[in-house]
Structure formats: C-alpha cells, structure tokens
Design a protein that fits this description.
With 517 residues, this protein is an alpha+beta fold. 30% of the residues lie in helices and 24% in strands. The protein is built from 16 helices and 22 strands. A 9-stranded antiparallel β-sheet has the order 3-2-1-14-13-12-11-10-9, with helices on both faces. The chain has an 8-stranded antiparallel β-barrel with strand order 15-16-17-18-19-20-21-22. A 3-stranded antiparallel β-sheet has the order 4-8-5. It is globular.
Length: 517
C-alpha cells in the first residue's frame, strides 16, 4: 500500500541549495521530480536555453546511461516471454547463442560463455573502450558495432572485475532486436512507456526532434569552459550516435521518468521480475568504478542499477552524462521514495548528488551516527576537488602533460625520424575505426573524427617516434592527454600509430595501421 506523500520537498531551504549547486557546478538549468508515497512533486530551476528560455518540468533531456535500466527491464520481459516457447532463454544464456553470426570477443572462451547477465552487469572482462565514441562512424549500425567487438582487447578474466562499458549493452540490444523482431524503441514504447503513460519518451534525439509536440521541449546542452577571465558557456551539439540505443539513447523528462520510478517502487505496472533487476551481480571497489562516492559499506551493480546502502537503507541509482547533459535517478524502495534530476550540463551528473542526499536525509531524519556529517562533507569536497582538477587540466599546457607522461625524456629529446608530412595519412583499426593525420601550422593534427563526439586530435612531439596526443572538441579538451607512438617499417615508412586510449589496458596501445589505396 502506498503511504501518503509528504508535503512538497521544494521549500526555501531546498531552493537555496539548488541555486548554490547550479552556480558551483556550472549547470544552466535543472528539472527535478520527487516520488513519495502516492504523490509526485516537481519543480524546475534556471534556463533551458540561453539567453532567457526558462527551464520547465516537461523539458526533454538526453537521459544517457539511465537508459540501461530500461534495457535490463526489456531483457527481463523477453526472458519471461520465452518461457513457453521452444527456445526459452534466461539470464545465463550466452549472447553468442542468440546472435552467433555477430557476437564474438577477442578470446574464444569469452565468446562462448559471456551471458546476458554478464553483459548487463559490466563483468565480461572487456573494458569500456569509450574511444570508439570518437573514432567510429556516428551512423554505424548495431550489427557493425557488435561485430567489431572481437577486435577490442580484453583487460581481465570474466566475472572478476567490474568494468563499465556501453558496448555490452549495445550487444544485448542487438540480441533483443533479433529475438523480438522489433527495434528496442518500439518494444519499450509498447511494453513499458505506453502502459505507464510515458507519452514523451523517445529512443534518440532525432526521434524526439521529429515529434511535433516534443521537438521544442528538448533542452539545449552546454559546457562551462574556464579561462583566465573566469569562463564562458559554450553550446554542445545534441548527440546522435546511432548504435547507442540501449546503452544510453533515451530522451525524456523528469515527469515521465517519475512514472518509471513509481513503477519500480510499487511493482504495479507491466514489468515483472523487479527483484531480479536490482539484485547485486558484481561488487566493485576501485575508486574510479563508483557511480556516486557514497560512504557505503559496499558498492555493487545489478542489471542497469548501482546498488548502495545509505544509512541502513537500500538505495538504487544510476547517473547519465553526455557532453551538455547530466542526470541522476534513484529510489529507496522501503520508504516508497524516489527522485529524478536532469540538467543541461554534464556536470549535473555529479552536482545533483548533494541534492539527492539532502532529500534522503530529510526523509530519514537526523542521523544517529556522530561521524555522518563529517563523512558526507568529505564526500562532497572530494567531488568538488575532482571537478576542479578536471577544469585545471583543460587549461594546463601540453608541456605540463609531456613531463607527466614522459618523466625520463632525454635532453635534448631525440628528433622524429621522418618529416612530419611522412606521418600523414589515414590509419584504420579493424573495429571500424579510423583517424586521418595531416600537418597544420607545423603540427600533426587529425581531420575531425567521424564519431558521436566529433573531435580533433593534435600531436606534440615528445621524443623519437613518441608524441603527446590531446583531443579537443570544437569547444574544449575532452580527454586527458595520452601517449601516441608511430612505428616505422624498414623502408622508412610510417606504418602504424598506437594510442594509449584505454586506461584499463595499463599502457597497452590501440594500434591503427596505415591505409593505402
């Protein structure tokens, strides 16, 4: 039985905290919905678009990785649908048995044994390989991307490490579509969104933009770019990477998402097997793995949900971010309480944590732990320090990173063996990725990459065939600088370029080979 909802949480104290977060985290606007018992409260703050378009509670946002919970739910439904068929499936069904012509990984054992459960809980052994967002075509098909996974290095044995990756949710999406015969967006609309009255939820920005009643509601995304005079807002293009689908393509509002949160709390809608979706499947301990830096006795991942215990309460949550957008969704089922927060800056992903904790603390009342406030202050301070370091890195010189990446450079550095023009050309990777170098103003740079995050990579010489690579979007530095190495063949021709793009590989480079027409 739903409990009676409390009065609106959007009081003067909360409003003041929101405005503080908007300023501290450089978020133009924020839309929030809170579910408590039988009531849903919502409020918007700030701007949906500069210079003066106000944010609204029905504004639409790319919800990014909060999509993953829907993909887990869809998988649960397909599993249930299969029970009375000649070919039933379950969480332990290998993906390769569903899409044998397409799914293969770098090791045969993984190909044969990685299951739906493994893929949806980030425990396959394959790391994120997020560089593919930049170097693979934005119109790549699901099948093409899934087939390319066999060319991506593995970093750990299966089921031993939590490694967050979009690729496996994309593989599951492809498997679901092959099994059901319908696109994932159609399945979600017919089986989840329409039954719980999510009328303005879409799988992809193009779908939202093509809907006459929704197109004008899509909030514009921004990034704050610091400079010597303080900083400025820069507009971010709305993403449309075709393969993202079940990994992060949903566009929705906090009003629609609040209905999804209520369905999860009350277990009253079309979805079955709720408990299986939030059952912890893998524990993770490394600092970079933690979705929200909460002082929890454990951190776990279920099927599209992070799982924590906060002040004795099971707390399920997930963030989403993409350049220009950030979101946070969470619920505390035993208190029939949940929330959705969406903002038009990717820093909203982190900045909203303090708001969520404020709401939960008000729900639970004062803590009896004398160290609670101290721990949470340390948590929030660490968040701010990490953000400030990222901002500083945007402004730091390439020379600074050269010393960090190459602490033992000879003095003077060794010259590169070829004229810069001889390194120019298009280099390809078998995972349908490519990069084209040219010389511009005495520096090797790439043409704008063709991926979901169109970027330009500039190389600064370090020593010999080694360079510092620094990726920039038209607006800002998007990626920490990394090591780039060219390989020269015996004839004196540049044949390969290796880039340290995947941190989990501990220095093992991703190699692209020169493409010759």
């Amino acid at each position: 039985m739903p409990v009676a909802g409390q009065q609106s949480p959007f009081n003067a104290e909360f409003d003041q905290l929101v405005h503080k977060i908007l300023e501290e985290w450089k978020i133009p606007g924020l839309s929030i919905a809170v579910v408590h018992g039988s009531h849903t409260h919502s409020k918007s703050y700030g701007l949906a678009e500069f210079p003066d378009k106000k944010m609204t509670t029905d504004a639409l946002f790319p919800a990014a990785s909060t999509t993953k919970a829907f993909t887990g739910a869809a998988t649960s439904m397909v599993i249930k649908d299969s029970k009375d068929t000649d070919s039933p499936i379950d969480w332990d069904t290998p993906i390769s048995s569903l899409i044998p012509d397409d799914f293969a990984l770098a090791e045969d054992y993984l190909t044969r044994h990685i299951t739906l459960e493994d893929a949806l809980s980030h425990r396959t052994g394959q790391p994120g390989h997020h560089w593919m967002n930049t170097y693979t075509p934005e119109d790549e098909t699901l099948q093409e991307l899934v087939r390319s996974m066999r060319h991506l290095p593995i970093s750990h044995p299966p089921r031993t490490h939590f490694q967050y990756t979009n690729n496996m949710f994309i593989a599951v999406t492809h498997a679901l579509q092959q099994r059901t015969g319908v696109p994932l967006g159609t399945f979600l609309k017919e089986r989840i969104w329409d039954p719980i009255d999510m009328k303005e939820t879409f799988l992809g920005v193009p779908e939202a933009k093509s809907n006459p009643s929704a197109a004008h509601k899509v909030a514009e995304g921004y990034i704050w770019l610091p400079d010597d005079e303080g900083g400025s807002w820069l507009h971010e293009p709305q993403f449309k990477w075709r393969p993202m689908t079940g990994a992060g393509a949903i566009v929705s509002s906090v009003l629609d998402y609040s209905k999804w949160v209520r369905e999860l709390i009350e277990k009253s809608g079309p979805l079955k097997g709720h408990d299986s979706l939030i059952k912890p499947r893998v524990f993770h301990f490394e600092e970079g793995d933690v979705n929200l830096p909460l002082p929890s006795p454990h951190h776990a991942y279920a099927l599209g949900w992070f799982v924590d215990n906060y002040r004795g309460q099971d707390f399920y949550h997930h963030t989403g971010s993409w350049p220009g957008y950030g979101s946070l969704v969470g619920f505390v089922p035993d208190k029939q309480f949940g929330f959705v927060m969406m903002g038009n800056s990717n820093s909203a992903r982190e900045g909203t944590l303090r708001l969520a904790i404020h709401l939960i603390d008000k729900l639970l009342g004062p803590s009896t732990d004398p160290l609670h406030n101290e721990r949470m202050a340390a948590c929030f301070n660490r968040q701010i320090e990490e953000r400030e370091n990222r901002m500083k890195n945007i402004q730091r010189s390439t020379e600074y990173f050269k010393k960090r990446l190459f602490p033992n450079l000879p003095e003077p550095p060794l010259p590169h063996s070829l004229a810069l023009e001889k390194y120019a050309g298009t280099y390809t990777h078998p995972a349908n990725a490519s990069v084209t170098f040219k010389v511009e103003d005495g520096q090797l740079v790439t043409e704008k990459t063709r991926g979901a995050i169109p970027s330009v990579l500039g190389l600064t010489h370090a020593s010999g065939e080694f360079f510092v690579g620094r990726m920039k979007t038209p607006n800002s530095a998007m990626m920490a600088p990394f090591i780039v190495e060219f390989q020269i063949d015996p004839t004196g021709k540049a044949r390969k370029v290796g880039m340290d793009l995947e941190p989990a590989l501990k220095g093992e480079k991703i190699w692209f080979e020169l493409h010759e027409a």
